[in-house]
Amino acid sequence: MFNSNKKSLIALAISSALTLNVVAEEAENDTTIEEVTVVAKKLSHANHEVDVKMTQQQSSITSVLALMDNLPGISINEGDAFGGDDWSTSITMRGFSIDGNQQQLGMTIDGIPNGGSNYGGGAKANRYLDSENMETIQVSQGTSDISSASLDALGGTFNFISAMPAFEKTSKFAFTTGDHDAKRYFARHDTGLLFDNTYAYASYSSTSTSRWVGEGSNGGMTREHAEFKFITELNKLSITGRLSYDDANEDNYNSVSKAQFEQTPDWDQLTWNWTGVPHFDQMFAEGWSTLRENTLGYVKFEYSISPSMHFKITPYLHKNEGRGDWIPPYLVAAVDVDGNPTSEGGTIAGQYGFTDQLGNPLAPADGCTDNLSWPWDSGAGLAPSCYDTNAIPVMSYRHTHYEKTRIGMTANFDWSIGINDISMGLWTESADRDESRDWHKVIDARIYHHFDETPYWTQYSNNFQTDTLKLYLQDTLNFGDLTVNLGVQKYFVDVEKYDNFANGITGKVNSDSDVLFSTGVVYQINNNMEVFAGFSENFSAIKDGVLERDASTLDEIEPETAENIDVGIRYNNDNLDFSATYYSISFDNRITFIAPGSDTSGIDYSIGTNGTYLNVGGIDSTGFELSASYRFNENWDIYSSYTNNDSTYVGNAPGFESGTKVIDSVDDMFVFSTNYTLESFRAGLSAKYTGERGDADAYTVVDFNAGYTASIDSNVFKSFDLAFVVNNLTDESYLSTGTGNGTTFFIGAPRTASMTFTVSF
Question: What's this model's pTM, rounded to 2 decimal places?
């Protein structure tokens, strides 16, 4: 038996880790705070959680984002089976997206905002969590919890909950190996009881993989990740602290058209042999890279004023820095407003791909055209045949630098009085983000892409300041079998751009919301069944990226809003859990980027701060989601979900005509999985059907997993576990996620196997 201090710490840890009510689960090993069963609140909107069977369907080397792919309404797509490339990652839910162009879904870690999910300065949950240190993922489809801290939650939120420390002193080591040179080392140490009131753990992992496309120098991913967490109880005050560090270097996958895929379904058009011809080497895989470093820490103070009154305050700090790389097949010549050469700011007066022996730019021969059959040709005159044999090819290594510091705080006060459960609180944050772009000369393009560390031109350098304050108030009234909630919230958001070259503020926008209302009811029909209905007004602030574009008319851009209606039913008994939800969403003031010359083909490396953001109408989404799990006995269970979604554009903006399907939205998704356990052995099979998305055909991916766990009667070792996972078991060839333009897609990963051996001592 645990002593009384440990018992109270169990309750404390569970309440601090989860915003839902939880109860302790009888388990074979009663030694960790992690072993809990989640019991849902009476929520008036659709919500689901990841369970342990879903985590077993993926390898521990896999991104934590993939763990929620089988939940209804959600489609997760990543460039490979391990989630090793943020550039090619997308998430869609009910017609809303997180991808390279859109951030319409909120994401938090233990209730702490992630700082945005965009590629330029954002960080998704996989930057903060290893799968072994994750308790669960709380998914709110359509409507988020009113206390959720996010500026992106138009279509719902994902809250990733980190695991609690173990009660006993324990060490764990895991090694994963798999296809595509996958290697991962993971170690975690739990301290057990410290100072009669504290438990803690620290972990570290090192991961590396190669891109599955091509061979040799085809790029890959390396990641170093560390986490630390503690929980301390001091009478009525509990303190939880967490710190995570992540350093990732990822070479990207490229999107392709359907025609390119049909011609070469296992090639994303990037190359893995350096040719010395910049026109070809611009597609060299190792030159398309994402480098990111993220550190996130928080300390949460929870105080029980009385049994019915609780207060919580959580200050946090996040630092993000990184770089995005491309290798344009030319050098640029920049000039200032007077036409004089410049190394900072200005505009591009010209570009050249060859020089003479002294480094002087050369023009292509008269009448020379570029006959190289490359679909993203950057312009005529880049072929070596256009120049004398003594001409020297040149190219650039273009870096976009990102750096962000966020400091913020969430505060919540809960009070139960009579039939009222009152919640009120705030979220405040100050975010300071720097972005700059510089061009470096490749030292000798004939040999390799090694570049001069000193840039020859810095295209732009900007600073963005975003100040956020959110206030909310909600009352949940309990009338026996009927529960009613009423809530209001409001955002105050100010965004400002400082141009470091102009030495002044060049853009400012107020992105405050209206007062946003929410209401809902839950009626308990009997002990097993309840029905619910809810309405909410959702909000997404204008992002600082809008201020990047000089042509954006800031006084004409309005924040994005959405009105969400959920109606559903939930049923559960000892063996069956079932839920069904119908939803209707009206999304207004959709903000879209219109690139200059967007009707041209090829990569525009020089786009800089050109282009504009506009409100282009909205989106209407309707559909229904079904999910069910059934336990035949203690050994065998099945799970299934089905989603039907209809998302269409509203308004008649160019490229987004009213009534047409929303780009990359999925109409139909169907999941079926089954799991079997027998003593120490486990096995599972999962299949997911994803319907057509624009030009991309429907596809079905099957995953298989098996594992064996055993205790060890030893003075040193406690247990070991062997886990085997095969993603895309049937080696389905398919196009997965789109890029937001409706014409190019990333190629789905082929069959990928991995094995993890874990030992505890």
Answer: 0.90
